[in-house]
Amino acid sequence: MKEYKLEKDLNKDIYKYLSTLKNCFYWKNHGNAYSRIGLPDIMAIHDGKIYCFECKLKTNKATLIQLKVIAIINKCGGIAAVVHSIEEVKRLIEGG
Length: 96
Hints:
The chain is an alpha+beta fold. It contains three helices and four strands. A four-stranded mixed sheet has the order 1-2-3-4, with helices on both faces. The chain is globular, with a radius of gyration of 13 Å.
């Protein structure tokens, strides 16, 4: 598994992977005064399912509000998780 030194490098690999999928639309959430707090970093719709990825380096942890939002998304039928690698993203999409 690739070790990332910067979160933006993990994000780039995720974008690259998502761009190879058919029927996939994805975007980066940029937090601001008008956005909902705790939304995952990357969201994607693929074959009618929504996927939400909170990207973290191995040494970083999600905040409590991020974990609550992930739980809400999953409860509502989405697939959301904290991810540390592109392999985790692929497992979620290919298994979802």
